[in-house]
Structure formats: structure tokens, C-alpha cells
Design brief:
The complex is a heterotrimer.
Chain A: H1 3-11, H2 13-44, H3 51-69, H4 72-93, H5 103-125, E1 130-131, E2 143-145, E3 148-150, H6 152-174, H7 176-186, H8 188-193, H9 198-220, E4 225-226, H10 231-245, H11 250-270, H12 275-289
Helix pairs in contact in A: 1-11, 2-6, 2-9, 2-10, 2-11, 3-4, 3-5, 3-9, 3-10, 4-9, 6-7, 10-11, 11-12
Chain B: H1 5-26, H2 30-56, H3 64-80, H4 85-107, H5 112-132, H6 134-137, E1 151-152, E2 155-156, H7 160-183, H8 185-195, H9 197-202, H10 207-233, H11 243-256, H12 263-281, H13 285-300, H14 304-311
Antiparallel strand pairs in B: 1-2
Chain C: H1 7-20, E1 32-38, H2 45-64, E2 73-79, H3 84-96, E3 102-105, H4 109-122, E4 126-129, H5 136-139, E5 148-150, H6 155-173, E6 177-181, H7 186-202, E7 207-212, H8 222-231, E8 235-238, H9 242-254, E9 262-265, H10 270-275, E10 284-286, H11 297-310, H12 316-335, H13 340-347, E11 351-353, E12 361-364, E13 370-371, E14 376-380, E15 387-392, H14 395-408
Parallel strand pairs in C: 1-2, 1-3, 3-4, 4-5, 6-7, 6-8, 8-9, 9-10
Antiparallel strand pairs in C: 10-14, 11-12, 12-13, 14-15
Helix pairs in contact in C: 2-12, 3-4, 6-7, 6-14, 12-13
Amino acid sequence: MDLDALGACLTIPACVVNQTTSGLIVGMLLFLVAAGLTLIFGVLKIVNFAHGTFYMLGGYVAYTALGATNSYTVAVLSGTLAMAVFGVLFERVLISRVYGSNVLMQLLICYAVVLIFDDLVKIVWGPEFHAMGMPAAFQVPPLFIAGGVVPPFYAVLIGIAALIAIALGVGLSMTRFGKTVRAAAINPQMVSALGVNTTLLFAIVFAIGGGLAGLAGALAAPVRSLSPGMGFSILIESFIVTVIGGMGSIAGALVSALLIGMVRGFGTIGFPKFTDGLIYIVMIAILLLRPQGLFGRRS
Amino acid sequence: MREYPALRDVAIAAIALVVILAIPLLHHSPAFEDFVIRLSAMALFATSLNLLVGNTGMVSFGHGMFYGLGAYAFALMMQMTGLSLPVAAVLAVLITTIAALGVGAICVRLGTDYFAFITLAMQMLLYSIIISWQTFTGGDQGLRGGIPRREIFGFELASQLHLYQFCAIVAVLGLLALRHVSASPFGQTLRMIRDNENRASFTGVVLWRARLWAFTIAGAFAGLGGVLAALFVSGAYPELADWPNSGQAIFAVMLGGINSFLGPVLGAMILLALNDVVTRFTEYQGLVLGIVILAFALGLRRGVLDFLKFAWPGRSR
Amino acid sequence: MTGFITRRTMLAGGTASLLAAPWVARAQANTLHIGMQSIFSGPIALLGTSSRNALMIEQERINAAGGFLGRQIEFVFRDSKGQPQEAARITRELVNSTGCELLIDAEASSASFAVQEVVRDLGNIACIHTNSETSSLTADPKIRAPTAFRVARQGVHDAVAGSIHLAEYANAKKLDKWATCSPDYAYGRDTTAQYLQFFKQFKPDVEIVTDAWPKLGQPDFTEVITKLIQAKPQALFTLLYAGDLSAFVNQGNIYALFSQMTVATPNVDYPVLAAIKNLPAGIQSATRYLETFPDTPANKEWGQAYLKKWNERPTNWAWQNSVAMHFYEEAIKKTNSLDAKALAAALSGMKIDSPFGADGTITMRDDHTTIGYAIGWGQTTPKEPFIIDVKPADWGKILELETEWKKQKNYI
């Protein structure tokens, strides 16, 4: 525990800028993954324990696409689209059979998928780690803002994630499709009775959810290492984010992802050896004080 | 026999125990003995979880914390104090029971989904404490150097045969105790709560108290399983308290049958056997295990024993 | 259905007997099975795969020369995924059911302790740990086992050698302010503490301005990197390795970390160096395996043969497993048996010729661990051979300080 260091950091503008940006970048990438997870739960009432696999495959597909086309944009788009398609397949072939089942049955199916794809990735790309490397366009020196360091690549990532957050928010509240999705989350039978093709709706929701996780994986791939089983830690973190924010709430996912990002950013200064423990304590506290999460609805 | 179900259970347990103890005397197979020793720990762990999941409808994602706590408490006492094995084992289970009472008091007030999440968070917190408190628990390397003085009532537990016999006896007795709890009026109360908690509370059942009892008992038996696990590896490792281990217990329950008392035991048998067999033939165990789980989940749609009951309906519970 | 034994019970019994089939003991063939367990999956899969690669080369060589005691050898590989209880189960399975007569334990440190307990319990099988670098495995008399040996570099040796070199370097370049960034688990914490302890002995005026402890396998190091940059150290010591080091380098590059401080790390293996894109030059690095150090034809030949066969460069883990087989070879020649106690007596104190020895030889001390292997420090460059200007460590000094450290820990 190093509370003096934490106190010192909070009084230095450069430190605050640096740790806040790092909290932002960690938080925004986490938000992309958690948004998909919370959307799927909100509409389909399915806890997608295989969500980390989408993230992992998004990264690997982007890695291969970059190697083939040398274009980072194509790589990111490939990762996202591939995972959207995978999401639809996953929903149609497997998830649709366990709607309404015990949550443990859903867990079982998702876990089986995680196991299978961790090994498939090992077979296709090999068991060792891969590094995608920074695309040439981003190999530029960092910017200096208020004495703090802000790398352009991260600024772009934060921007993309923010745009998506806005698009999701606007999309869900103002477009017809968004309203149908929200209605289906509250009462799917009624929505179906009103003539909406709920099968198609659910497939699309899974496509969006999976696509978001794949996007996050592809965006993060240049700076993170790719290895089989990398989805595991992402799953835990995004799970914590959705629980704290409220299962089913996009706004909740955004706020809690940023919260977790900040806890990491400043926790690493104040509690360098217990940062994870800190996050679990926050989760327990929220569950005891407000079990439905910050923005969740009491069911 | 039908009029005295408790007697019938004891008789089945006695016969099973005699058979299990007889096998190594007829055909000595160290691999089989290892399997039974590990199964003993896992069977107690999974069956205790089913007291919560199948019987009370409480889905706990964090049950592994009591398994791990039992293992660490036992191993630490054996390494750090001069207590004899039976005393250390009983104390370890006692410590785990008190912990289960404490954790349960905090968690049982929450509704189903949130109960699952908070138990998971509690387990992850315990796991980070184990990892961080390196000077006491050995951190990620666990407790090294082995468990000394492994004697109990004439059993020399360093000998595999004696360890096998000891674990078999403890497991059968433990399962019998759990069966007694499950078949008792208290167990029926739990199932009533599972099926319709409002109706249960109308009949005067204090919901949170019944759930807390169930949670505590389940935690205690998971701790006992942990003690056996610690004996097998002669130490304690953080993996025993990590949440994938909770996942293993959940899978054992689901694969074997959530509505049958012996379901979790069968599920544990299947998981352990698969692990042992598959690792000999391929390094892609995840692939094989995943396909098997999908076959169970999509094909049978319920655990094996539940499926058998469904396909061949017999005497009702 | 009435009756005591229901149809369900019969079915259950039948299933149980079917499942029992694998444990009926197998017949013994004339092949000499050697059990090998390691980590073949996850972020440090390289540890297991490179160990296995080296052992396959040894298997061919030894079998071509007639095998052990006239019997052809065959490795049986198992993946424990680094889980200690799985590692313990595998060791027992290898010995008890698969009938392995020798063991190579290529696990990383946490699982190797679990294997050690099994070897101690069984008492009748020889085992060489090849990848565990935690000193206490053999240094602590309570943990050392009579038939278990270690052929691997040791944390305390590396710590002494590294601190001597870094202290000289720091004094020469006037680098007084240091920071550390190591993975938050036993190896990371203990080894960093060891390095710092010896470092302060050789450079008392060193000031550690900050320390960072990311989790092993953590995907994002950003908050750690910004914390380090803010503390403005002149040099950074890091024990991150494999995928973590690669991610750290990539993420550090976008913060221009490497232009703001000198970096020292003992943990860079060839394939990691090759996989990290944009590797900065000038990182102070220890040699784990280097074809050019020791600069002998025997070493170069081995490195080239490995590269040719496996299309990738060897790692530290590769040469350690190779040397382990050489030790077994010599011990079996000497005792003409596979009996664990006889082999243990032969191995204790044995000295063999080796291309990886600092002076052409490696010795197995009577505390069951190896000394005399090549340790050097140099600096990185973005292309082959990746580490240049290598200076060998002084083994006299290493052994002297190791003895002091052991006394301090009450191991002797």
C-alpha cells in the first residue's frame, strides 16, 4: 500500500493527466467488450460466458488480415465482421437451444465453446504468442498535453470507442430498430405478437454484441499479445463491469468501465500489489449496496 | 426396506464401501487408486454444491472458496503446528464452516443472479488474498515442502493404499451425511424453497435462515473435500481456490444430474475420467472436453442420472 | 420398478466398469519410457514446446548410439497447463501407469514443487527438474528430495551475475535512479528482491524511485508504463518475459518509454526477441541461450542443428533439457542401472563436458543443482544475433555470494 505516492500523484497535473488517459484507454476498450455482453444479456437474458472468445478471435483475425493486406483498417473491419458473423452462427446453432434454460446450462454451452476455440486457435495459429506490431501510420511520437503524455494511437482508439458509445446510445433510444430492441428486452412475447421477427432480432443483437467484442480485440491487437486463452482475463473484467454497471444497461457499462479503468490507473500507484483485490472489493460493495448495479433495473 | 429409507441409504453406503475397499486387494492399480482419491475430494465438493444448486435453487459460482480454504487451513496447520492429523482436519473443516457462515450471512439476502455474482466476487477476493499474502500462503507457488506426520488411527497416509482407504471411508461417510441432510425434513424444506419460495414462506419457513443453513453445511463439506485434496497433493495450491475449480464442480453437477443425489458424484467421475484418458492421447484436451460437454448439453439436455430417470422412470423420490 | 437393485443401479455399475478400463495395468515393453511434463498451452507455451524440441533431438542422438543400457528410449509428453495438482497427478500417472523409469520435469516453478513432493513420496524414481529457476527447490534442505535434481539456471546465480554487471554499468553511466517492473507472483517478487539485495551491495547509492507489479498475463500495461514514466527513473529493471514482455515493449514504444530510460532485463529468449516487432536497441540483457556465447564451435553446431530441425531458434529451456539428458547418459553409463538411489549417488558431484558451460563443463553440485553454465550480459540490437558485446559473469564471485545468501536464509 503506497498512499503517499497516490496523494502525491493527485496533486501533480501531469500525473493526473497520465493516469487518467491510461484509465480512459483501459476503460474504453473494456467498455466495447462489456457493451456487447450487457446488450446480449439485456435483450436475450443470456450471460454470454464465451464473450472472451469473440475478443480473442477478433484479434487473431485482424492479425492475419494485417499480414495479408498490410492495411490496419481492413484488419479491424475483418475482425469486427468476422465476429458479427460468428455471433449469428453461435446464436442460431447453440444459444437458441437454451433460451429459458437454467443459467448453468447456458454456462455449460458457452464454456464448451471457449474450450473448443482455445484449442482451435492453438491448432491454426500455434500455441505461442504473436505480436501484431504497430501499423506504420501510428508509429509517431506521443503528444504532450498539460505536461502529460498522450499517444496518438490511444487518442484514436478512445475516439472510436466514444463514437460507438454515442452510436449505441442514439441508436437504441431514437431509431425504430433500437426501440424494438428495447421493447424486446422488456417483453419479447408481446413484441413477437406485434409481428416483429424476434428470431431475426435476436440474431442481429448477437451479431452486434459479438462484433463489438471482435472490434475491441482487433483495435487492441497492435499493442497486446495474442495467445490462446487470452479471452479469459477479458471475460472476467467485462463481467465485473457489467455487474457493477447493471446487466442490460449500456450507460452502466460505460460508467463502470471507466470506473474500473480509473481504479486501475490510480490503484496501481496507491495499491501496486493489490489492484485486482481492490476491484473485487468495489464489486462486492456495489452488489451489497445496490445489487442491480449502478444503472440496472430492479427485476 | 422401503419403509426405512435412512436404513436403505446406510446399507447402500456400506456395500459401496466394502466394494471400493476390496478392489485394490483383488487387482492393484495405482492409477485407479489415484483416481478414487481425487474422486473422493471432488465428489464431496460437487455434492455439497448440489445441496445449494439442485436442492435450494441457489446458484453459487464461488463454492471453490471453501474447498480451497479447507485445503489451506489443513495444510497450514499441519506444516506450522504440531497438531495431529485428525485434529487438524477437524479444525480445518470447522474454520471453513465459520467462514461459510460469515460469507453466507452477507450473501444469502440477495436474489438468484446477484447471489451468483457476489459469491464469485468473494471467491476471487479470497484468491487474490491467497496470492498476495505470499509470506503466509506461499503466494502463487502454494504451500511447499509437503504435509508431514500423515498418520491417523493406524493409517500411514504416505502409503497410497492407506490414503485410498482413508479417502474412500471419509468420502462415503461424508456423502452419507449429506444424503441424510438432503433426505431429511430440512432438505424437503430446501426443495420447497427452490420450487416456490413465496409459498414456502407462507407456511412459516424463514427463508434466509434456511438458505444460510444450507450454505453453511455446503461450505463445511466442501472444506472436507479440500482436506482430502490437500492430502493428495501433499500441500495446498491457489488453483484449488480459483474460480475455474468452482466451474469444475458446476460441470460435475450438470453432467451427472442436478436432480439426483448421486448425480454430482457421477459427473465428477466423468470429468476426472475424461481428463485422465484424454491427456494420454492428445494435447488438445479442451477440444475433446468441449465437444463432450456440447453432446451432453444439447443431446441429453440434462445430466446423465436425470436422463436415466427420465428414460426409465422408476420409484419416485 | 421394485426391488433393491434397480435398473438404474445396474446401468451405473456397468458404466463404472467401462470407465475402469484405462486403469488396468499395461504390459511392459522393452522401450525405456521417460516421462516429461511441462506447460504446452497458454502464454508461456514456448517453455514446453522448446523443451520438447530439444529432447526430441536428444532422443534421436541417444537412440542412434544404442540407447540407454541397450534399450531404445522414448519420451512420453504430458501437458499440465501449469496447474500444480494436475502436475502431481501426471507425475504419478507417468510412473505408476505408463511405467516410466526416468522423469524429466520441465514444469515452471509452481508446478515443479508439486512434482517434487510426488517424487519424494514415491522414493524410487530419478527426476531432473529442467526449467524451475526458483532457488529453494534445491537450496532449502527441507524441500530438496534425495532422487530429484535440477539442471537449470538458478535465480540467485542470475541475480548475483546481473547485479555485478548492472552495478558496473550504472556506475559507468551514472545511473543512480532505478525503477522495477516485474510480474506480481513469487518468481517476480523473489527474484527482483534478490537482484536489488545484491545490487545495493555493489552500488550502495542506488535509489529505487518506484516499483510496478503488473499481473502475470495482464493484457494492458498502460497504467504501469505511465506510472514509470512519471517517476522519471534513469533506468528500469524488468523481469517481464515472453508475451508480457512483448506487450510491454509494444505499449512502451508508443509512450517512447525506451528513449526516456535505459532498460535492463535478464529474460529475453531468441524467439521472443524475434517476435517483438520494433525491438529497441541498447537494452541491457542477459543471455539465456545465444549461439555466439560461449563462442565455441560446439555451441554454434548445436544451435544450428536445432534451428535446422525446428525452424526456430533455441531457448534457455532447450539447452537445459539437453544438458539434463547428458547428465542421465553419463550417470547411467557409470552405474549401469536405472535405480534411482544409484543414479542419485552418481549424479551428485558429477562434472560433464558441455557446449553450454562457461569453461566447457557443467557441474552438478551435491545440493542437487548445476553450476558453471554460461551466464553473460550484453545489449540488444534489432537484428541477429540480437545480443552483442557479451561479457561473461564471474563464477567465483557468484558462488561466494550464493553461499552468503544461503547462510542468510538458514539453508546451511
